[in-house]
Amino acid sequence: MATTDGNPVSFRIPSDLLAKVDEVAAALDRSRSWVVVHALGRFMDEHGAGILATARGAAELDRGESEDMDLVMEDLDRIIAAAEAKRP
């Protein structure tokens, strides 16, 4: 997991969430930063890659880098039929 010796960042946290961060930090004898960095790291591990893949896919579609699914399925059907015809 990431350490807290990175770059300083400033953002707003709702009071109720900050209270929970403080409570966890106290229970673990860690800093707020440690708790937030670890929580953010967990989010990135669980969700970050999927979000980025979706964004990249949407950008590819916007650039016209896609294939018509019906045409792909027709090609697959032809490939399968040809392979089955070669079977003894």
Structure description:
- With 88 residues, this protein is mainly α.
- The chain has one domain (15-86).
- Helices cover 72% and strands 0% of the residues.
- α1 (15-28) packs across α2.
- It is elongated, with a radius of gyration of 24 Å.
- The model has no long low-confidence stretch (mean pLDDT 92).
Q: Counting H and I runs of at least 4 residues, what is the number of helices?
A: 3
Query: Oligomerization state of this entry?
Result: single chain
The count of β-strands is 0
Q: Categorize the overall geometry.
A: elongated
Q: Averaged pLDDT, please?
A: 92
Stretches with pLDDT under 50, minimum 5 residues: none
The portion of residues forming beta strands comes to under 5%
How do the SSEs run, as a string of H and E? HHH
**Total separate domains:** 1
Which features does this protein show?
single chain; 88 residues; mainly alpha; 72% helix; Non-func_TypeII_TA_Antitoxin; Ribbon-helix-helix domain-containing protein; CopG; Ribbon_hlx_hlx
Précis, in short:
The chain is mostly helical and 88 residues long. Helices cover 72% and strands 0% of the residues. The chain is built from three helices and no strands.
SSE inventory with pairings:
Layout: H1 15-28, H2 32-62, H3 69-86
